[in-house]
Design brief:
Rossmann fold, 5-stranded parallel β-sheet, Arc Repressor Mutant, subunit A, 10 helices, alpha/beta, 218 residues
Length: 218
Amino acid sequence: MERPETNGDIKTAIVEDMRDIREGLSTLINFTEGFTLTGNYRSMEDAIPKIKGNVPDVLLSDIGLPGMDGIEGIRILKELYPSMTVLMITVYDDDERIFDAICAGATGYLLKRTSPAKLLENIREAVSGGAPMSPEVASRVIKLFREVRPPEKVDYDLTPHETRLLKLLVEGHNYTTAAAELRVSYNTIKFHMRHIYEKLQVHSKSEAVAKALQNRIV
């Protein structure tokens, strides 16, 4: 049963398929002063449509869920509710899942053996702008990002105008909207894109955008 919401409480929702864990977390949140439970869900398919009615400040989500996994689910939820804070709470501590969760929009990554008191502290930290992680996960993240260092910026001899155009494409513009933004004709955009393709040695807009991001051109 949910407590009546108190003004200033941290609204928290839970997505966890294991009933005992889900109920344990729900009880912890529901009966801790300063927190309000807005919902608990067995799956992302259940959570996504229902969260719309009462968007939480913080979502605690498992990764290994039936149907849609937690990483894909939070990717969708972060697109719908960018300001919602997501904390993964899981048994997995491998590099791939940690990296994928962070890239999908997770603010923090906690292991299920995190103590109740520490979990509440982590939620408060996340709401305050922090990025809480279990110690084992934090050390892996540091190691991971040391190994995946971004490449040095590559100079493809693009003109300032070509660079501006490429930046617009990275931001999601197409040729028509880029032409409007730069106040030039559609044919002018096509002309410049031919030169950009030649300099980047690519053959499509998607390849150009990917290369721009990979090589920090814009």
